[in-house]
Q: What sequence folds into this?
């Protein structure tokens, strides 16, 4: 089968949960089908020859496009301002690029495309280019819910008003758009329920996020006593909110209750207050970008996921579980994963409760070890090899549905 796979970003290198989901879905599809990959570029690193060449090892062809709005701050702010006059949400307009559209047309004219895989809602605007071809939309999140959570937490008045307007437009756009595809994939039953309320007629399927349990597995590295780790890119607003929430409201309580605790922040763009404190406080460490997060996660006694904004499911939790780690998370942080509080994770939604549960794990080795063992067991259910099989089942549904539709049209004539 020939698949045209459209993506809002190139997934390699594997620097975020978004990248991991797209990469393993893309690779799984390419193991069974001929895949033509057309993608936007979010960061210059994605354009490095070795990264593009890696994707070409399993894709039949790879085509990359820049996002004009990202070419300068002036264009970005101009686009945000002009969007006030549009009924479409900004994320849809941002990815509307004529050269990208022409490439889709050219591929469809030249190749026999059996299925179009659209990775993320913003690219659904290109649907008029492949209306008569079997097609599915993959939703990493319910985008309007993620934006609404950001809106609720935002303190800047003008930004809050703008986010509110965007949320209203995105909610309408999302509800209308999902019904135009032969199938839509959500990453959790929770997201499916939310989307079903938005559009009861949409054909919705759950294909969870996953982890590579062979790559992320317990290693022979001894845990550093009393150590905590946060890992993730801190330039993304969801992660930045989380890390600042942890820094300002949770960590002071932990250090008051347990002064011997140590915390390491692993990932790009750490907030300046954390960097400055790390220079004078030996308990605080900042790594910046690392090539491999596994040694840092493995040596930590506790992994923290204090996410308050976002949607979908956090792959960092699945990766940490696969490594057999004890995790403390907010409810939103572990949303959509079949976790059990007290069995394979600890869940806390207030600063005091979160801090208390981190300290409990640092002090109680027996409880921490049991939590780690159960986390690893749960992670095996989410191995990407199992997830890719579910993806193939949805592909088959879309193809068969389209064949049935064509047959009905022939009979009715």
A:
């Amino acid at each position: 089968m020939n698949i045209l796979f459209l993506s809002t970003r190139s997934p390699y290198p594997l620097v975020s949960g978004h990248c991991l989901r797209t990469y393993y879905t893309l690779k799984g599809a390419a193991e069974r089908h001929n895949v033509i990959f057309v993608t936007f570029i979010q960061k210059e690193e994605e354009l490095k020859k070795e990264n593009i060449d890696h994707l070409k090892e399993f894709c039949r062809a790879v085509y990359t496009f820049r996002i004009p709005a990202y070419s300068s701050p002036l264009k970005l702010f101009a686009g945000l301002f002009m969007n006030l006059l549009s009924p479409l949400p900004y994320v849809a307009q941002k990815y509307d690029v004529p050269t990208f559209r022409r490439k889709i047309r050219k591929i469809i004219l030249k190749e026999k495309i059996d299925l179009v895989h659209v990775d993320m809602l913003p690219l659904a605007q290109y649907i008029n280019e492949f209306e008569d071809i079997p097609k599915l939309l993959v939703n990493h999140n319910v985008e309007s819910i993620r934006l609404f959570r950001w809106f609720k937490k935002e303190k800047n008045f003008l930004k809050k008003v703008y986010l509110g307007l965007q949320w209203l437009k995105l909610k309408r756009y999302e509800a209308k758009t999902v019904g135009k595809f032969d199938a839509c994939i959500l990453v959790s039953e929770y997201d499916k329920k939310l989307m079903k309320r938005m559009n009861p007629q949409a054909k919705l399927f759950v294909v969870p996020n996953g982890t590579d349990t062979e790559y992320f597995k317990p290693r022979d590295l001894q845990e550093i006593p009393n150590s905590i780790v946060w890992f993730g890119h801190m330039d993304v607003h969801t992660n930045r909110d989380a890390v600042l929430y942890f820094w300002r409201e949770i960590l002071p309580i932990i250090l008051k209750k347990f002064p011997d605790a140590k915390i390491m922040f692993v990932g790009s763009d750490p907030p300046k207050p954390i960097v400055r404190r790390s220079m004078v406080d030996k308990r605080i460490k900042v790594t910046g970008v690392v090539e491999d997060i596994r040694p840092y996660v493995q040596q930590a006694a506790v992994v923290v996921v204090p996410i308050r904004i976002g949607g979908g499911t956090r792959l960092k939790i699945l990766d940490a579980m696969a490594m057999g780690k004890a995790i403390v998370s907010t409810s939103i942080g572990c949303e959509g994963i079949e976790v059990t509080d007290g069995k394979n994770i600890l869940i806390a939604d207030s600063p005091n409760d979160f801090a208390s549960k981190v300290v409990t794990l640092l002090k109680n080795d027996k409880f921490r070890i049991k939590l780690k063992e159960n986390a690893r067991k749960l992670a095996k259910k989410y191995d990407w090899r199992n997830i890719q099989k579910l993806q193939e089942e949805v592909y088959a549904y879309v193809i068969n549905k389209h064949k049935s539709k064509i047959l009905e049209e022939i009979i009715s004539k």
Notes: The CA atoms of residues 156 and 162 lie 10 Å apart. The first helix runs from residue 17 to 32. The radius of gyration is 22 Å.
